[in-house]
Amino acid sequence: MSTAENGPRPATVRVLPPRDVPLGGPRAMTVRRTLPQRERTLIGAWCFIDHYGPDDVATTGGMDVAPHPHIGLQTVSWLFSGEIEHRDSLGVHAFVRPGELNLMTAGHGIAHSETSTAATSILHGVQLWVALPDEHRHTARDFHHHVPTAVTFDGGEARVFLGTLAGDTSPVPTFSPLLGAEITLDPGTTLTLDVDPTFEHGLLVDQGDITFAGTPLHPADLGFLPAGPTTLTLTNPSPTPARLVLLGGTPFEEEIVMWWNFIGRSGEEIVQARNDWEKAVRFGEVQGYPGDRLPAPELPNIALKARGNRD
User: Fold this and answer.
1) What is the pLDDT of residues 63-116, one digit of tens each?
2) What SUPFAM superfamilies does the record point to (predicted)?
3) Measured distance CA(138)–CA(99) in Å, rounded
4) Residue 68 marked ligand-binding
5) Residue 114 counted as an annotated binding residue
6) Domains of the chain and any CATH numbers
7) CA distance 180 to 176
8) What per-residue confidence (pLDDT) applies to 246?
């Protein structure tokens, strides 16, 4: 029988595996990066997913990312364990701990540093970026800290740090429609969530072997589901709890240029941002970090090109 007679085929999950990447210059820590990838640049406006730990900081040295610049994006910090100290050129000095959100808006330009604190023994979390749409990407610097309340359900709970899910809405403003939530599932639990059908969704597995809309996912996998479904079904068939990060948003139709810590629309814009950082203009200064700022890497010998999603 034809698809037309049965209606459209259900959307299927694409599994995006991680790759190991050193982060933070000469004191680099290793992270698992699942976005961007060659076949997928964005999920909604989410354009960057780094997943790290659990790291014993006595062995690894933890996180020590010296002052560095950003343009055209928002950074989202979310921890499962440990504590990170944030300083930026807006003058913000803040901490983020498990179950708390730090969201920094770079806009036209900001600089910040991130270091794990002496209170940290095990460092474990995610660092995420959101691409700002063209009409807002030169906005003023900004920072928000938010502690979401746990929404409990039969067999687990959710903490919604951006957007709306399971009847809870984050008060943190965004520049495009977004969803971000940590979800925990008890062993043997199946959860069906109502979601916005105009959203694409990505599910990052931190702990556990689960199925996402019928597709198996393993720790550090990112499952991508195109827009269309009105519900998402998550199942934890294992005898141990699962922990997941659900991200979503309306498809981001603009092409972007991503290089180092910058998101622009052209190679020339990236070159200008790099020059501004090297000349110590535009981004401001980070006060209180005990060390030098990161130098910009050399630009590649090929032209920087804008990219979007291929499908």
Assistant:
1) 999 999 999 999 999 999 999 999 999 999 999 999 999 999 999 999 999 999
2) RmlC-like cupins
3) 30
4) yes
5) yes
6) 18-147+255-311 (2.60.120.10), 149-252 (2.60.120.10)
7) 13
8) 98
